[in-house]
Amino acid sequence: MADPSAVPSAKQLASSASRKYKEITLSDLPAGAETDLEILADTLLAKKLLYSLFIDRLVDWVPFRRDYNKGHRAIADFLWCRAITLAVTTNVDELVELASKELGGVLRTSVTGAEAVKIWDHAPFLKIHGCAVRDPDNTL
User: Fewer C-beta within 10 Å: the chain N or C terminus?
Assistant: First the structure.
């Protein structure tokens, strides 16, 4: 992640969340969960703990809500001037939205295809894994 952004990588997030999981539950996780976010998420989903524990307690959301970089600003600018017709991301942070505010506009993020086809003042910005700020309970 380019400076000044400090969003953790998937591997870093898996490691941090796994460590907190073990501290809270005193339970072990399957092999690979400490370095593979998909294995960790699948495990917690199967235990019905993805939202109540992982989303609510294991993830430090602060880095996902501050310090956007030039890339985030460029995407926001491209959306506002319609240099692109659509941006699709798997990121769940709000960094493009924060950059958009600096440009003077509130970016309306879509988390479903139905929302993405609405007509806004900017090109659609679709977050296919959800949005940690707008809809954390449905973020993957």
Answer: C
Strand order in the sheet with 87-89: 87-89, 125-127, 109-110
- Those residues of the chain that have pLDDT short of 50 are none
| Bridge partners for 87 per DSSP | 125
Query: Which pTM value belongs to this model?
Result: 0.76
